[in-house]
Amino acid sequence: MLHKPLGLLAELTHRCPLGCPYCSNPLTLDAREDELDTATWLRVFREAAELGVLQLHLSGGEPATRRDLVDLAAGAHAAGLYTNLITSAVGITEETLGALAESGLDHVQISVQDSDAASADRIAGYAGAFARKRALAAAVVRHNLLLTVNAVVHRANIDRIGEMVDLALALGASRIEIAHVQYYGWALKNRAALMPSRAQVERAATALAELRSRHHGRIVIDAVIPDYYARYPKPCVGGWGRRSLNVTPGGKVLPCHAAESLTGLEFWNVRQHSLADIWANSPAFNAFRGTAWMKEPCASCPRRELDFGGCRCQAFALTGDAAATDPVCQLAPDHARVAELAAVQTDAPYVYRRMASRHRADLDGDGMA
Ligand code: SF4
Ligand code: FES
């Protein structure tokens, strides 16, 4: 049975001012001149709504580097989509935010690298980023937009989950998403420098239970346990080709944001195909849909409709076989490899994700603070 997608992540651009060591953009970035134009994005939003999509996430890179961001948000609203802006907060002025609120934007999600300003700026690789995030969060609340704080945790900040929840409350957020770094793409270069110890993960789990009970009714705390210390994998993206789709800056449609890390998949582009055609018929979406592609132990496992065999991108990154059982699973033939990799930890400096210089020049456009 073909499910309807509920969410669409629109990666408006790969341009970004920050240099996060766990950047989830692909290793090869789309150039500014290859980005979809305004009219094509607006068509994609209309097609998404017709396909059944309810939630649109305007993401990047940093979406505010697009000068047509307000027009895009207005078009999404006109298409009837609930629209969330995912921003680093660097490069978005209060004037732009006000125009976005007027255009019908529903929600803003701001990433926060840490509760401590110096540490946050060090992780982001951008001096002053933390102060800008605080300022934008205050503006979001002033404009009566709903705010979610997104905190990506790893060995440098996982011991400050409580402080990050306090920060989210102080900023006026109604929700905080605490997600561990996912190890594919750029994050693989920094895996040992990002990997927490088992003791850190256990302390974080205890802290989370206490925080949820203490702040019940004040803020929603969503948190995901680090994969490498879990017994079973997560149902990545809610199952391949089942709940969501991503459109890259250049118009390729992917079943998950890291799908381009899988070699041999054929992705169709919104420049040549409608979103409905891509969702139903593109080879990439059908490659790991359902359960027929699974090998043992997944093929006969009672959990196969719960976690869908885990994450295809992680399976490929760790085994070279995108159809393998996610090695995070304790039943996977390659499970021992996960414990070996998790044991490699270091406090070495990060390899930051830096855009090419032409992209950095592009960041000095309108709408930048
Ligand atoms: Fe999930 Fe496959 Fe592990 Fe079963 S064997 S729990 S389906 S990953
Ligand atoms: Fe691609 Fe999990 S990130 S399937």
Q: What coarse outline follows from CA principal-axis ratios?
A: globular
Low-confidence stretches: 357-369
Strands ordered across the widest β-sheet: 7-6-5-4-3-2-1-8-9
Determine the mean pLDDT.
90
| Radius of gyration (Å) | 20 Å
Strand content bin: 5-15%
The biggest sheet amounts to: 9 strands, mixed
Distance between the amino and carboxyl termini = 48 Å
Number of DSSP-assigned strands: 9
Bound molecules: iron/sulfur cluster, FE2/S2 (inorganic) cluster
The share of residues in helices is 25-40%
Strand-pairing-aware structural class: alpha/beta
Query: What's the SSE pattern?
Result: EHEHEHEHHEHEHHEEEHHHHHH
Number of helices: 14
Structural description of this entry:
- The protein is built from 14 helices and 9 strands.
- By secondary structure, it is of the alpha/beta class.
- It has a 9-stranded mixed β-sheet, with helices on one face.
- The protein is globular.
